[in-house]
Amino acid sequence: MALDNHFFSFKTEEIARNLLGQYLCRETEEGLTSGLIVETEAYLSEHDPACHASSGKTKRNATMFGPPVRAYIYFIYGNYFCFNVVTAPEGKGEAVLIRAVQPLEGLDLMLQRRGAQCSINNLSSGPGKLCQAFAIDKSLDGHDLRQKPLYLKENKTEYDRWQVEATPRIGISSAQDKLLRFIISGNKYLSR
DNA sequence: GTTAAGATCTGCT
DNA sequence: GCAGATCTTAACG
How many angstroms separate the CA atoms of A139 and A63, rounded? Predict the structure, then answer.
């Protein structure tokens, strides 16, 4: 059910690509919300100045250097959280940013969290937005993503039929030549 | 102690 | 399409 250790035994770029089409599930007292991952970005430990880990371990990015399959969550621009999955063995410092999901279950709850004037294709089409819709915050930093209340679930249908595209990452000011953003081509719920 | 920059979003033009 | 909001983090003095 939950994504296993084998899934995370590959290179971070490959994991980022493979995460497309998998499920992200979140359980709270208010109910269940889930979505299909449609956009990810890989952040590498070597030759990647855009990665938070590139200038060494700090208090903020310590989770990134910890064991894999954990959530690395940080606060940005005074308002928003970003949700990452740690992908490399302890000490390395690599992660995959989940940038957008296609909402599946718990639409009402997501609308409620995001504000009523929000439309369905505006619910979780961006890193800050999906954290709001899924009620993800700093308290889940370091959480093991194989367990409730926040976990990744295998999609058993044939997601290979979806066309995957690699593009430059968004919102960074360095290493823009690297094609480390992965999207399900043509999906309606991409951040752009 | 102080400062500058940031893996963003929203609203307005 | 563009600027403003907003505040934590880390680097520097």
Answer: 12
Over 90: is that where the pLDDT of A117 sits?
A: no
CB of A115 lies under 7 Å from some atom of strand C: no
What is the reported pLDDT for A160?
61
- Give A135-192 pLDDT, tens digit per residue: 999 999 999 999 999 999 999 886 566 899 999 999 998 999 999 999 999 999 999 9
| The nucleotide closest to A61 (CA, C1' atoms) | C9
Cα–Cα nearest to A41, from A93, A83, A99, A88: A99
pLDDT of residue A116: 67
* Angle in degrees, CA A25, A27, A132, rounded to 5: 75
Q: Which domains does chain A have, with CATH numbers?
A: 5-184 (3.10.300.10)
| DSSP 8-state assignment for residue A186 | T
Residue A159 beta carbon within 7 A of nucleic strand C: no
The nucleotides of chain B lying under 7 Å from a protein CB are: 5-11
Sequence-distant contacts of A107-116: CB under 8 A, at least 24 apart: A109/A30, A109/A31, A109/A33, A110/A33, A110/A134
- Asked if residue A20 keeps its beta carbon closer than 7 A to nucleic acid strand B, the reply is no
Provide the CA A181 to C1' C9 distance, Å, integer: 25
**Which nucleotide in the DNA or RNA is closest to residue A52, CA to C1'?**
B7
